[in-house]
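protein under study:
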Amino acid sequence: MPLKVYYPRPKIGLYPREVDKQAWDLLQAALDPEIEFMIAPEIPDPADYHVLITGWPTKEQIEASPDLHTLVIPWAGLTESTREILQEYPQLNIHNLHHNAVPTAETALMLLFAAAKCILPIERKFRGHDWRPRYGPNPALLLSGKTMLILGYGAIGQQVGRVCQAMGLNILAIRRNPDAPALEDLQAEVHPPDALHKLLPFANVLMVTVPLTDETRGLIGKRELDLMPENSILVNVGRGPVVDQEALYKALKEGKLHSAGIDVWYNYPPDEDSRAHTPPADFPFYELDNVVMSPHRGGGASEVELLRMSHLAELLNAAVHGEPIPNKVDLKVGY
């Protein structure tokens, strides 16, 4: 029986035409012949699709097809508005794509290294031909031999852990299900969420990769930052509000933390006109030399659409063959 899939998206989309075409060709070549794939901004007629692919499903899209049984959100996690809508449709199976785990992990590592080596203020001075930082006290931290605590040991966290373990860091991790499968070559010590306060005093690096849920909002505040060792580093590629912004700002400004690398924020531009002048937080992180700032672009890369379509093909092929579909979302916890 054919598997009918509807992807409500313009064929050009938000990416350059040549990238989208290449990704679309890859998807078509990788899909099982039994999969009928429809891509269009409007609901098809007849609306008899089994799988809907979108991060912002509408009630119309969900209710149009009586055959709909699966929603695929084409990234990791889901928005709060989507979560609220889906509470009305408990019969739906919901799955994510984790295609951007490697790009996000690479961004996390970039932020970590740049923060640990204090490269940005030094680079700014050197652009003015100022060599003096080479001859003064060196504030860079050595990472090898230190301990990293990964808060959220999913696809992103494991990719980060794999690289850092190879560099000589000891890896601790917190995961909702500590016994869930992980990369075979990792030797991390994995703990449940209630071990957070016990582990923070060992965390020379706190790597935040968890999604934002009711349980993770404000999970890292003043108390948690105070538990970390002096001269430690925090990197956040999960969601901004997982870390209390005031507590983080004060810990950085007062020198409790050595540095931070942040890709996810607290305020976002509400429209296109605001993109050139929206402060990302309520506190002036931009004034601090010990912060590396990135405008939530960690999961992106020039090849990201190719990765997305490759992972989408794997997921849909599993569905049409009756195999377990990866990355099932638990609406109760939000990921």
Notes: The two ends are 30 Å apart (CA to CA).
